[in-house]
Design goal:
- There is one protein chain.
- By secondary structure, the protein is of the alpha+beta class.
- It folds into two domains: 8-173, Creatine Amidinohydrolase, Chain A, domain 1; 175-437, Creatinase/methionine aminopeptidase superfamily (Creatine Amidinohydrolase, Alpha-Beta Complex), CATH 3.90.230.
- It contains 13 helices and 19 strands.
- It has helices spanning 8-21, 49-55, 83-89, 94-102, 113-120, 135-151, 165-174, 178-201, 208-221, 284-302, 310-328, 335-340, 429-437; strands spanning 25-30, 63-66, 74-78, 106-109, 126-128, 161-163, 226-227, 232-235, 256-261, 263-265, 268-269, 272-277, 367-368, 371-372, 380-383, 386-389, 403-406, 409-413, 418-420.
- The chain is globular, with a radius of gyration of 25 Å.
- The model has no long low-confidence stretch (mean pLDDT 95).
Length: 438
């Protein structure tokens, strides 16, 4: 019999915290839909992050309903036991065992959701629910709400107000507990060593796909369930495409290789980007760009501590990178004019980082009621300045064309300052060349 992958008391405590914050509102979180290829062959399944965060339950076709103040407060709807289907698709908990193993108050078959949910939601003013994440389930939800409205007649309860569950739960997920930080550190550790393995493997003539394979092999060997997002393994000019995912080209001598990849561990993901020379040594032009980006990243990370505004990090990154563009001769003019006109975004089109956790671009607001948010202890995010100079850019100095550099680390804010959880991956030029030389 399968068990929950983590301590179920952690998930129970999270549900209790949610119940305290719901007021006279209910919450419904639905599983991700399954994705099927041709010939009934399914893609590997990953549970919805919010549903896993509150239950630890990983099966598809499942729903969590929470309603404070009335027993049962936490209700899980799951697939029924079906020996024939389990022969084909694997183990199912079923309602009785799911209730026992995951410590919810009550568990029903998923087929009973529309009937049971109407009764469970009576008397609540509003509902936290995320529309458009699972369109097929949205139709069931609309049906439940309509039947609920009709059943209450003239009691004063009309159609329930809907609130965004992602925003509600995202604020809880933003500050990581000790258990979450432990999972995140492990994901970062696995990711870091996977990047080092790639550095040791790369040489002229290998393919981007082979590099990806080396990293995936290491991830799986360390019990990572999956990659946290699609691999970016981009050699040469491909590194100037931000989300390059083809990963099918040969790595040529003289080119830089940009790898943006992260391992997922217990639903938490690392997110590291490193650039290094396929031949093992940086050229003069590559040093100019790479060292400039690295110096900026180190300066940004050095000042991280509670109270820093995320907005200020974005603005500081844009300012420093624009200075670098001017120094390299990519742009000319007054820096203030360049930034106000967004001209710098030609070579730096993204932000300086993003929240990190169960999703690579994790839940949580960057602004609170229009005001920029200050980072706090327990928050985790990336710092990833970059410079991308397309090979077709006739305005750029010739020696820099086709160079794309991004350097990304994962930062945990602590009470005293910060911790770089991905510092184990070399990024100094001498360190990289030394590893590749070995």
């Amino acid at each position: 019999m399968r068990k929950a992958t983590e301590n179920v008391e952690i998930f129970k405590a999270r549900r209790e915290n949610v119940l305290k914050k719901l007021g006279n509102n209910a919450l419904i979180v639905a599983a991700h839909p399954e994705h099927i290829r041709n010939h009934d062959v399914g893609y590997p399944y990953r549970q919805d992050s919010n549903l896993y965060y509150l239950t630890g339950f990983e099966e598809p076709e499942s729903i969590l309903l929470m309603r404070p103040g009335n027993f049962p407060e936490s209700v899980l709807f799951v697939r029924e036991k079906n020996i024939e289907r389990e022969t084909w698709d694997g183990f199912r908990f079923g309602p009785e065992l799911a209730q026992q193993e995951f410590k919810v108050d009550k568990c029903y078959p998923i087929a009973d959701f529309e009937r049971v949910a109407v009764e469970l939601l009576k008397g609540y003013e509003g509902l936290y629910y995320r529309l458009l994440k699972n369109p097929s389930f949205d139709q069931k939800m609309f049906s439940v709400l309509e039947v609920l409205k009709s059943s209450q007649g003239r009691t004063g309860y009309g159609l329930m107000s809907l609130y965004d569950a992602d925003l509600f739960l995202g604020e809880m997920r933003l500050k990581k507990s000790e258990a979450e930080v432990a999972n995140l550190r492990k994901a970062c550790e696995i990711t870091a060593q996977g990047h080092v393995a790639a550095m040791r493997f790369v040489k002229p003539g290998v393919t981007e796909r082979q590099v990806q394979g080396v990293m995936m092999n290491y991830f799986y060997s360390q019990n990572s369930a999956r990659e946290g997002y699609n691999f970016i393994v981009a050699s040469g000019n491909s590194a100037t495409t931000l989300h390059y995912n083809f990963n099918d080209q040969v790595c040529n001598a003289g080119d830089l290789l940009l790898i943006d990849a992260g391992a997922e561990y217990n639903y938490y993901t690392g997110d590291i980007t490193r650039c290094f020379p396929v031949s093992g040594e940086f050229t003069k032009a590559q040093v100019d760009v790479y060292q400039g980006v690295l110096d900026i990243q180190k300066e940004l990370i050095a000042g991280l501590k509670p109270g820093v505004l995320f907005k200020d990090l974005h603005e500081q990154g844009a300012s420093l990178l624009t200075d670098l563009m001017l120094d390299l001769g990519l742009l000319s003019g007054r820096k203030e004019d360049i930034i106000s006109a967004n001209i710098h975004r030609k070579y730096y089109p993204h932000g300086i980082g993003h929240w990190l956790g169960m999703d690579v671009h994790d839940a949580g607001l960057y602004y609170i009621k229009g005001e920029p948010r200050a980072v706090e202890a327990g928050m985790c995010f990336t710092i990833e300045p970059g410079l991308y100079i397309p090979g077709t850019d006739a305005q750029a100095p010739k020696e820099y064309r086709g160079i794309g550099v991004r350097i990304e680390d994962n930062i945990l804010i602590t009470a005293q300052g910060h911790e770089n959880m991905t510092a184990a991956v070399p990024k100094e030029i001498a360190e990289i060349e030394s590893i590749m030389g070995q």
